[in-house]
Amino acid sequence: MSPDQLTTTFAALADPTRRAILARLASGETSVTELAEPFEMSMPAISKHLKVLERAGLIARGREAQWRPCRLEAGPLKDVSKWIEHYRRFWEQSFDRLENYLREVQKKEKKNAREKHRRD
Amino acid sequence: MPARSTAATESAERVLVITRDFDAPRSLVFKAWTQPEHMMRWWGPHGFTVESCEMDLRVGGAWNLSMRSPAGRVDRQRGVFREIVEPERLVFTYTFVDESGNRGHETIVTVSFADVGGKTRLTVHQAIFESDEVRNDHVRGWGEALDHLAEYVKGNKK
Fold it and tell me: Quick check: pTM over 0.80?
């Protein structure tokens, strides 16, 4: 996945209205009018949000002239989820190593302290 | 083996939250995060080795690290320190740069070091958004939306 695509996805997800639209679409495809209902927003404002989501590849719109249903596209969301999973592994495994390292350092410190004690 | 860390996808401000307790005083754990000679010994997934690590440990100072994968690939990571409160809190930006110089999305990493009876509870938050305006906005709404979306994605994984 390209970093640019991820940045585009994150930018699209950064707006609460757009996230609400996506959450709504997760339960099935729907018309723009229906999508607009819960928001106190003009149709042009909603259309603008939909365009951002469409450009980011997060939604697709039907081609029927009158009723252009919107539906969620899973691809970019899967990429986000993969990205999060990648970092989760990164930290978990770094933590494993940190755990071992801290144990090692403290053992060494104790040993040094004992030797120092013996010398004194 | 039960997981010793908890990972959660909560709000976007903290898209990734991982916590683990370490049997070491937090002054030592903080040092392990802020001194290159320590960092080089543990940073990165299993089998990776840190080849170089530079840190200009002050607010606005840069850090740079290069890491070799078990297959020999060299990745770089870099960022800038945002907040340094010894021994409690460390905030820095984090960008991944691959072998061909492609930069990944910049994230903000917040590391908290809490003293729990002489041991240390370490929490890493990794956030994906930059601006404060957007960040404040994450406090509401995002967690729920991401849950829905995560469910949706899960359903599409087959």
Answer: no
